[in-house]
Specification:
Blueprint lengths: L3 E9 L13 E10 L2 E12 L9 E6 L7 E2 L6 E6 L8 E12 L10 E9 L22 E9 L1
Antiparallel strand pairs: 1-9, 2-8, 3-7, 3-9, 4-6, 4-8, 5-7
């Protein structure tokens, strides 16, 4: 009998490898332990810094995908775009966002993604460029950081 397990992952850009990923909007998050038989990845919410006129964009795109996520389907590409709508900030420094975009896994021939051990994350402008929050390279200063919460569903 298959059981469904939900795992919630909180990703904070402060904890990225700043030598390899100096910008907060473009990094890879490595899971502490790999997950297997993943059937769904959902971005539950995000908090992004209110810096460098981000509100003027109207929306940003969160691009995810890697070698193990290339079976994720959305439109015609191997990457997934989640639209993050900008809202009026509730604080001076951060914009809380709430979205519920599912990443659906192709169901052929195996309905599972296999091993999920990392999440490459790129926050893009509508033009496809990585958004620049104006932070110094390698910054882990709180006012520039991004937080994401993902729900991952696995079949055991």
């Amino acid at each position: 009998m298959n059981t469904r397990r939900e795992v919630y992952i909180c990703v904070d850009s402060r904890f990225r490898d700043t030598a390899r990923y100096p910008k907060v909007a473009d990094f890879i998050y490595y899971l502490r332990e790999p997950l297997y038989n993943v059937s769904e990845v959902q971005l539950i919410s995000s908090v992004i810094p209110n810096r460098n006129s981000v509100m003027d964009e109207g929306y940003l795109l969160l691009q995810t995908g890697n070698g193990r996520l290339d079976t994720v389907e959305l439109g015609n590409g191997s990457s997934v775009m989640n639209v993050i709508q900008m809202k009026n900030p509730t604080t001076n420094n951060f914009i809380p966002t709430e979205i519920g975009c599912n990443i659906n896994i192709k169901n052929k021939p195996n309905p599972y993604i296999g091993k999920l051990d990392k999440l490459p994350l790129k926050l893009l402008k509508p033009t496809g460029e990585i958004f620049n929050f104006g932070e110094p390279n390698g910054s882990v200063s709180k006012e520039y950081q991004i937080q994401y919460i993902f729900k991952i569903v696995c079949s055991c």
